[in-house]
Design a protein that fits this description.
This protein is an alpha/beta fold and 317 residues long. It contains nine helices and twelve strands. Strand 3, helix 2 and strand 4 form a beta-alpha-beta unit.
């Protein structure tokens, strides 16, 4: 069996497949040479490359796709369903890494770590007398999306004695009770929060969650943390809001597009902290994502499907 790997992955998964006698063809993130022989591949491990009907027309022999991670907005589900190609994700291998990264962005913004670092390097030691740093204790945070990552973020915030509220339109909290305050409707409640952390998937048919109307309902000193998807934020609206509200902060690990454009307006601002979509890129996490992606491929060909990791279950009905 020939397996195509699109994007740089940890060698744990590659070694696993090679030990199982698969032939593995690896291509780095920006290497487009993979398009030359798409017809020979039986399986695909994919990171961020777009998988659509055009891709599938050339990948005529493709039987299974393993997403290196849990999000799959780069994959056209309708197109793979038409070809009856199953899509597997890695499951809960990255929630701790992303939740920790989220807290890191919160701490950086609150304690002004990046800001102070830049100033100390410029011999501006008296920046400490600006008293810009704040404490997390008793600050109010709204966690949008209460899945695996959102739940871990809530526990980290609880350890810092923060006041935690959660919003998830897909959960019935009458059946899934929680110790935290539940927000049923975002409208009318946004102005009370010091932090809003985003942990929800993006449906390509939806508009951005964070736009000028959303931003204008926040307090001037609020901070938004986004370790979910760049599509969830209207970056033009965010830039204008950040520019007009110097005490408002945005901490983001994701962009739209990715990577951000070289001349992105966001780079001009000091009240933003950015990381390169690296929340899940700890050594421990990338090891597990690569290995579990490879296991998903092997399980499929050996008829040992883990249905809990299968996204398009309907193709088996």
């Amino acid at each position: 069996m020939n397996i195509l790997v699109l994007g740089t992955v940890h060698q744990s998964g590659i070694k696993y497949l090679l030990n199982k006698s698969y032939k593995v063809y690896e291509f780095e993130d920006q290497n487009l040479n993979y398009k030359e022989n798409l017809g020979i591949y039986d399986g695909l491990i994919v990171k961020m490359n777009k998988i659509d009907s055009e891709f599938l027309k050339q990948a005529k022999n493709l039987k299974v796709i393993a997403r290196h991670g849990v999000g799959y907005n780069n994959i056209d589900i309708s197109a793979i369903n038409e070809k009856k190609i199953p899509l597997f994700i890695t499951g809960d291998v990255n929630s701790t890494s992303v939740a920790e990264h989220t807290l890191g962005l919160i701490l950086d913004i609150t304690k002004k770590i990046s800001l102070y670092d830049r100033n100390v390097r410029k011999n501006n030691f008296v920046i400490r007398n600006s008293f810009k740093s704040r404490d997390l204790e008793n600050k109010k945070i709204l966690i949008c999306g209460f899945g695996r990552i959102g739940k871990k973020v809530s526990q980290f915030c609880k350890a810092f004695s923060m006041n935690i509220s959660i919003y998830d339109k897909y959960l019935d909290f009458s059946k899934n009770p929680t110790e935290f305050n539940v927000v049923d409707n975002l409208e009318g409640s946004l102005s009370e929060f010091d932090f809003i952390s985003i942990h929800i998937p993006f449906n390509n048919s939806e508009k951005a969650l964070i736009d000028k109307n959303f931003l204008n309902n926040l307090k001037d000193t609020c901070s938004i943390i986004n370790t979910s998807r760049g599509d969830l934020v209207n970056e033009s609206d965010m830039f204008i809001h950040l520019q007009n509200n110097k005490n408002f902060y945005y901490g983001t690990d994701v962009f739209n597009p990715e990577p951000p454009l070289e001349n992105s307006e966001l780079f001009k601002l000091d009240n933003i902290v950015m990381t390169p979509h690296s929340a899940a890129y700890t050594s421990e996490c990338v090891d597990k994502m690569s290995l579990y992606s490879a296991i998903n491929i092997d399980n499929f060909f050996n008829k040992k499907i883990d249905s809990s990791l299968l996204i398009n279950k309907e193709i088996y009905n």
